[in-house]
Write a structure and sequence with these properties.
The protein is an all-alpha fold. The radius of gyration is 52 Å and the shape is rod-shaped. It starts with 11 loop residues before the first helix and ends in a 7-residue tail after the last helix.
Length: 125
């Protein structure tokens, strides 16, 4: 209790002055706190905006990478198809070369048989 009895009221002016000083000091502290909070809030908004912009940029890069991956996958599929086509062509060429070699052997042997038959070399045939 600030004023427990009537005698303590004699110092009322001094007490009022002390209370005014306390109020002024508290008002200054409130103003300072509000000002700091306002600056911090502004910084927080800036940081949040920067974070959102970074996230947008990250998503756009992810999208770009995904598109490039899809494009690369298509290219790989086309290359694999071309390799399969070339492998099939190689097998066809190998079969053709084998058939032509056998045909050549048959024609050569047929010519030798005719020559031996003309010379009547039946024993060697």
């Amino acid at each position: 209790k600030v004023f427990p009895d009537e005698q303590s009221l004699t110092n009322i002016d001094a007490e009022i002055e002390a209370m005014k000083k306390k109020i002024t000091k508290i008002d200054e502290e409130i103003i300072s706190s509000v000002s700091q909070q306002s600056r911090a809030g502004g910084k927080g908004e800036d940081e949040l905006k920067k974070a959102k912009d970074s996230i947008k940029m990250l998503f756009s890069k992810i999208k770009e990478i995904r598109e490039k991956a899809i494009e690369s996958e298509k290219m790989v599929q086309e290359i694999c198809k071309d390799i399969r086509d070339l492998d099939c062509a190689k097998q066809n060429l190998t079969t053709t070369i084998t058939a032509l070699t056998r045909l050549h052997n048959i024609v050569t042997q047929n010519g030798q048989l005719k020559l031996m038959a003309e010379k009547r070399q039946y024993k060697e045939v």
